[in-house]
Design a protein that fits this description.
The structure holds 2 protein chains of 2 kinds. By secondary structure, chain A is mostly helical. Chain A is about 60% helix and about 0% strand. In chain A, helix 1 runs parallel beside helix 3, helix 4 packs across helix 6 and helix 4 packs antiparallel against helix 10. The longest helix of chain A is centred in the middle third of the chain and has 32 residues. The radius of gyration of chain A is 19 Å and the shape is globular. Chain B is of the alpha/beta class. Chain B has one domain: Rossmann fold (3-Layer(aba) Sandwich). Chain B is about 40% helix and about 20% strand. Chain B is built from 13 helices and 8 strands. The relative contact order of chain B is 0.16. Classes of the chains: A mainly alpha, B alpha/beta. Chains A and B meet through helix 6 of A and strand 2 and helix 9 of B.
Chain lengths: ~300, ~280
C-alpha cells in the first residue's frame, strides 16, 4: 500500500518520452492549458500511457463533455444553496488581478468536472463494470481538440512556497480537507496570496459542513451514473495494469482517492466562483466545445 | 514600490483573445513606456510618478511578459508586439503618444515609429536593440528549445537574477531584482519567458534600417555608457540615422540605465517630453 505521497509526481516540464506524449494529448483532448494533479500523480506508473490511451476515445466524445457539463451545473446549483465565501469583497484586487482571478477560476471550473467523470469512468472499468451502452458506438460525435484560446494558463506557486504565510495556508488546507497534497486550484489562487487567504477564511466553514459533504457525495453518485452511460467504453482491466508491471490495487486506490477529492473540490471552486458570477451563469460551461468538423468528426460513422 | 503594489495598479485590456495588463496614471499628453526582456512594466515603477505629474503615463506589459497574457499559443516577436500596442492604443482611444522603449521595447518603439508613424508623437529609446545588436548570448541560451526541461523555474530565476546583476552599474537591492523577475518565477512564467526569448529575431530590426531616416518626429537616444549587452556604438549609429536625433550618453550606467541613474533619466525625459 502507498499513500498519494508516493510515488512522486511528474511535473509538466519534467515529462519525457511517452509521458510527454500523453501530457500533450491530455491538453489537447481535455482542452486544458495544463496537466492536473491526478495525471501528474499517475504519471510515474508504467501503465500510465496505457490508462490514458484507454480513456482517450471516450474523453473526446460529446457524451463525455455533456456529462462534465451536467456535473458543473449540479455543482453550481448546490453551491448556491450552501452559502457564500465572500472573498472578493474582502480583498483589494487591482483590475488586472481581478480579471486574472476570474479567468483562473474559469479554468478549474471547466476542467475539474471532466476529471471527476474521468476518474469515475476509470474506477468503473477497473472494477470490471461495463461503462458503455451496447451499440452506441456506431456513430459517436466528437468534440474539437485543443486548448481554448482564451483559457488561462495553469500557473501555480510551488507546492512548498518560500512564503511562510502560504506554507501555513497550504498546511491548513491539506489538513482540513484531508487531502494528500494541495490541489492545483489553491496553488493557482496563491498567485494572489491575500485573495487565497480570504477565500480560505470564507470557504473553510462551508467546506467542512454536513451539507457540503452530502452535496459532494451526490456529485460522485451522479458522476458514476453518467460514467455508466457514456457512449464509448474504456478498454482497461486490472489484469492489463498488472501485465504492465504495476500493482493494480495501487492504481485503483489512487483513482478512487482522486474521485473522492475532486467532488468537494468542484463544489469549492463553484463556491468561490459565486463571488464572481450568479449561480445560473456559473452553471454553464465557460468553454463550450464545438463539434469536431471534417471527416474525423464522428467515430464509427462514415469516414 | 514593491512589485505586488505595482501589480495591483495594473488595469487590463482585452485585444481579441489576448489580454494586456498596463498601468495608466496621470493626465495630459500620453507617454508609453515599453520594457524589454526579461523584465516587465515594473522596470519603470519609479519613473511613473515623476512623469505622471505632467503626462498620462501608460506602461504595458508586452504580450507574453509580466502579467499580460502568458498562455502558449500566440506570437511574441517585436513585430507582433508593435501591432498589439497599436491595437491597444486604439482600444484606449489614444491617437498619438510619445513612445519610450528600452531593450527590445526599444525595438518595438522603432517599429512603431517607422511602420505606425501616425501613433508616434515623439520617440525615445534607451539601450535599445537595433540593427544587428541582438539577441545577446544570455537570451539565446534561454530561448534554447531544451531550456524548459533543463532548468526548473527556481533555477531559471536564480540564473537570470545572477545574470541581470551584470546589467547594472549600481547595486540594485533584492526587492528590485526579485520584482523584475517575479512574473517568471513559476513554471508557466519561465516557459513564457523561454518562448519570448525564442521569438527574438534580428531581422525585425535590420529590415527597418532603411526606414530610420524617414522618422520625422523628435527623437532622443539615452544610453548607459557602460552597457556590455547593447553597446554605445549602436546608439551613436541610431543618432546618425534618425534625422535630428539627440544622443545622450549616461555615465556610470549599464543596460538598466533608468535604475542606475534614475534622476538623470527622469530629468532628460521630462525635458524631452515638455510640460
Amino acid at each position: 500500500m502507498f499513500g498519494l505521497g508516493r510515488p512522486k509526481s511528474v511535473a509538466e516540464h519534467e515529462a519525457e518520452d511517452d509521458v510527454a506524449r500523453v501530457y500533450h494529448e491530455i491538453r489537447q483532448v481535455l482542452r486544458v492549458s495544463g496537466v492536473n494533479l491526478v495525471f501528474r500523480k499517475l504519471a510515474p506508473f508504467r501503465s500510465f500511457p496505457a490508462i490514458w490511451d484507454a480513456m482517450r476515445p471516450s474523453a473526446e466524445t460529446r457524451g463525455f463533455e455533456d456529462a462534465a457539463d451536467r456535473i458543473r451545473a449540479d455543482s453550481a446549483r448546490a453551491a448556491g444553496r450552501l452559502g457564500r465565501v465572500g472573498a472578493r469583497g474582502r480583498t483589494r484586487l487591482g483590475e488586472s488581478q481581478a480579471y486574472q482571478v476570474e479567468k483562473a477560476l474559469d479554468l478549474y471550473h471547466y476542467i475539474n468536472p471532466k476529471l471527476l467523470v474521468l476518474t469515475s469512468t476509470l474506477r468503473l472499468a477497473l472494477g470490471g463494470e461495463e461503462s458503455s451502452r451496447p451499440g452506441a458506438e456506431s456513430s459517436v460525435e466528437l468534440i474539437e481538440r485543443g486548448v481554448p484560446s482564451r483559457m488561462y494558463p495553469m500557473e501555480m506557486v510551488p507546492e512548498e512556497p518560500d512564503d511562510a504565510r502560504l506554507r501555513d495556508l497550504f498546511g491548513d488546507i491539506v489538513e482540513t480537507l484531508n487531502i494528500p497534497s494541495v490541489n492545483s486550484d489553491y496553488r493557482t489562487l496563491a498567485l494572489w496570496p491575500d485573495y487565497l487567504a480570504h477565500v480560505w477564511e470564507g470557504l473553510k466553514p462551508l467546506a467542512t459542513s454536513d451539507e457540503h459533504r452530502l452535496a459532494s457525495d451526490a456529485l460522485i453518485e451522479t458522476s458514476r451514473s453518467l460514467a455508466r452511460a457514456l457512449p464509448l467504453g474504456v478498454s482497461l482491466s486490472r489484469e492489463r495494469i498488472e501485465e504492465l508491471g504495476d500493482d493494480a490495487g495501487d492504481v485503483v486506490e489512487m483513482i478512487g482517492t482522486f474521485e473522492r477529492i475532486l467532488a468537494p473540490l468542484i463544489l469549492n471552486v463553484s463556491l468561490i466562483g459565486l463571488d464572481w458570477r450568479q449561480p445560473d451563469q456559473l452553471a454553464g460551461s465557460p468553454y463550450p466545445a464545438a463539434s469536431r468538423s471534417g471527416p474525423g468528426g464522428r467515430r464509427g460513422g462514415p469516414a | 514600490m514593491s512589485w505586488r503594489e505595482y501589480q495591483a495598479r495594473q488595469k487590463v485590456a482585452e485585444l481579441g483573445d489576448r489580454f494586456v495588463s498596463y498601468v495608466d496614471e496621470g493626465q495630459g499628453e500620453a507617454v508609453v513606456l515599453i520594457h524589454g526582456i526579461p523584465t516587465w512594466g515594473y522596470l519603470w515603477a519609479d519613473l511613473v510618478p515623476v512623469l505622471a505629474e505632467a503626462h498620462r503615463v501608460l506602461v504595458p506589459d508586452l504580450i507574453g511578459f509580466g502579467y499580460s497574457d502568458r498562455s502558449d499559443r500566440f506570437g511574441r516577436s517585436i513585430a507582433r508586439q508593435a501591432e498589439l500596442l497599436d491595437a491597444w492604443l486604439e482600444h484606449l482611444g489614444v491617437e498619438r503618444a510619445a513612445i519610450v522603449g528600452h531593450d527590445i521595447g526599444g525595438g518595438v518603439a522603432l517599429r512603431l515609429a517607422t511602420l505606425f508613424p501616425r501613433r508616434v508623437e515623439r520617440l525615445c529609446v534607451m539601450n535599445s536593440v537595433c540593427y544587428d545588436s541582438w539577441p545577446i548570448e544570455l537570451m539565446l541560451q534561454f530561448g534554447h528549445p531544451g531550456a524548459n526541461r533543463l532548468m526548473s523555474a527556481s533555477t531559471a530565476a536564480k540564473t537570470l537574477g545572477a545574470a541581470l546583476r551584470q546589467g547594472f552599474a549600481s547595486s540594485p537591492d533584492d526587492v528590485v531584482l526579485d520584482g523584475l523577475l517575479s512574473p517568471y518565477s513559476t513554471e508557466v512564467g519561465k516557459l513564457s519567458l523561454i518562448r519570448d526569448a525564442s521569438a527574438l529575431d534580428t531581422n525585425l530590426t535590420t529590415e527597418i534600417t532603411a526606414l530610420l531616416p524617414g522618422i520625422e518626429v523628435p527623437a532622443l537616444i539615452l544610453w548607459g555608457e557602460e552597457d556590455a549587452w547593447q553597446l554605445l556604438v549602436y546608439g551613436e549609429r541610431l543618432a546618425r540615422d534618425i534625422p535630428g536625433a539627440k544622443l545622450v550618453p549616461i555615465a556610470k550606467a549599464r543596460h538598466f540605465v533608468m535604475v542606475d541613474q534614475p534622476e538623470e533619466v527622469a530629468r532628460q525625459l521630462a525635458r524631452f517630453l515638455g510640460p
